[in-house]
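re the bet — no i am not wrong, look at it urself. input seq straight from the record:
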Amino acid sequence: MKLALFGKEIIHLSDIDSTNNFAAKLLSENLCQNGAVIMADVQTQGKGQRGNVWLSESGKNLLSSFVIKPDNLSVEKQSALTMATSLSLLQTLRKFNIEAQIKWPNDIFVNGKKIAGILIENQLQGTRIHCSIIGIGLNINQISFSELNATSLLLETNKKVEPRTFLNLLSNEMNELFDAVNSSEFENLKEEYESHLFQMNEWKNYKDELGEFSGKIIGTTDEGKLLIEKSNTIASYAMKEVIFL
């Protein structure tokens, strides 16, 4: 994959319905380049996984979308985008002395609480990824989350950080990792991703279409499905097919 040069073009908005929606509009009109980043102070319709809404107080957090046009990435290996993004977030958080984990498929957890979420929307061209919009929401200076199981950079470090400062650091990390997102580096990327999975190799309770069960996460498939050992068998789950209890 060609180096994306994330951060070279940054479009900063005061408010928008969704940075992912805005990025898609720019792409459809050929108004942004490979590596463009859109960030906003407020999202009125911020999107999360499973159709959820991403809630964020104005100006306190990182609300962003990264645009990338992969050089030659197959649909079968699209999980590499999630892996590289997740690991980039972990490496950036480490700069603030925060050790985080990846809750499959793409939430970032610190001490059992959510600090960031990723939403990737791909545009396909045959069997290849033509373009990806990588939405990243990260709690930075927000301290109140109502009933949500969430945390923030401020709560973890007791220090305020400007969202733009975090974005610049994250862009640097993503440039390094995304340059390695190709077939020859996929296995290394996958191994690193799995080593940071939340509840990896721990017996925990889950729920699927058959009901609740005790299982142990043992990794992921190349397509990004979650592998859980249970009752002497190994089951694979796509998004929305298994719930963490």
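see?? The CA atoms of residues 37 and 191 lie 28 Å apart. told u. also The first strand starts at residue 10 and ends at 16. so pay up
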